[in-house]
Amino acid sequence: MNQSTPLPNASLLNQLLRFTPTARMFFSGNLCTLTQGSEADGLKQGTMHLLSRGELQLTRKGFAPLNVRAPSVLLLPRALEHWVQGSGPQGVDLMCATLSELAPPLDMILPDVTVIDLTATSSLQRPVELLFEEAEARAFGYRAAIDRLLQYTFVVLVRHLIDRQLLSGGVLEAMVDSRLGVVLSMLHESPEHDWTLDSMAELAHLSRSAFALRFVQVVGIPPLTYLTHWRMAVARNLLAQGQAVKAVASQVGYGNATAFARAFQRASGQSPSAWQMEHLSQP
């Protein structure tokens, strides 16, 4: 989006963060030496690095090193192999957290690496200060407090990127499109509906072919593919709450649990029951 592009309405923007990823701190302190990415910090999950003092160097295969000065937030929202180290004799004071899997439509617009200078945004300064205060005080319950503050910080960070129009992506353009915006809104609100290409086109007041073409040109994927991505995000959220697979299937537009299980397996690489068991067993 450029500076002249209007922002989507609040209802659609809320859908960006309907399934906000959870966050879990795995490091807090001073880092001087090179630390290779591990399962905890970015090979299998996204990561967020928060710098309070010093300078950090981020290294990724195939890319030039990136130097980041404090106070800053460094967001790598997807599983991405990387190495970090403090620059200079004093190293860097930072906090690192893992992020759970991104859900659509947010996963379609966040870049692989984002650096936010905290001196340029007052809205992020206080949450980050509170995080480091909690980490230093280590009062009882501090880890629970930090993980919730990290999730809040992520929300404020996305707000900042949207407000400054620093994110781009077809979904954002579709949200302000006079024809596509209403379709996205209805897909998000009613994933259980028996959607077809014809019913979506009717909402957009376009022919079937014109709607399909416009959706792909703006969003980047076919409308039924987008619908499936959204339904799977809703399904994962419901499964994580402990709902039965059969009940989840009906809430995301599948007539029976077998059809839902096949779609979920294709999207997630696991059956719904296996995914649910794995995630409910996590602390």
Automatic annotation (TrEMBL):
Ranges for domain HTH araC/xylS-type: 181-278
Biological processes annotated in GO: positive regulation of metabolic process
Record protein name field: AraC family transcriptional regulator
Cellular compartments annotated: Cytoplasm
Chief location of this protein within or outside the cell: cytoplasm
Alphabetical keyword list: DNA-binding, Transcription, Transcription regulation
Superkingdom in the source lineage: Bacteria
InterPro entries found in the cross-reference section: AraC_lig, AraC_XylS_family_regulators, Homeodomain-like_sf, HTH_AraC, HTH_AraC-typ_CS
PROSITE patterns attached to this UniProt entry: HTH_ARAC_FAMILY_1 (PS00041), HTH_ARAC_FAMILY_2 (PS01124)
Gene Ontology cellular-component terms listed: cytoplasm
Keyword Plastid tagged: no
Molecular-function GO term, any one: DNA-binding transcription factor activity
Function: Regulatory protein of the TOL plasmid xyl operons. XylS activates the xylXYZLTEGFJQKIH operon required for the degradation of toluene, m-xylene and p-xylene.
